[in-house]
Amino acid sequence: MFILMPASGFAFDKTRTISQDELSNGYGTINKKYDKRRPARPPRKRLPPLEQSFEKGSFAYSMGVDAAQSDDLVSAIRHWKLSSADGNFYADWQLARYYLGAFGGPKNDKDAIYYLQLVVVQYDLSSESRVRRQISADAMVELAIFFTSGSEAAAFKPSIAVALKLLKLASSSVGHAKANFLLGELYFTDEHIMPQKKRAVRYYTLAARKNYFAAQIKLGQIYYLQGRDFRTKIQGLAWLLVAGKNKPPELQKFANAIIAQSNGKELNEKQRQAANNIAERIYLKWNF
Question: Domain coordinates of the chain in residue numbers?
Answer without folding.
Answer: 88-210, 213-288
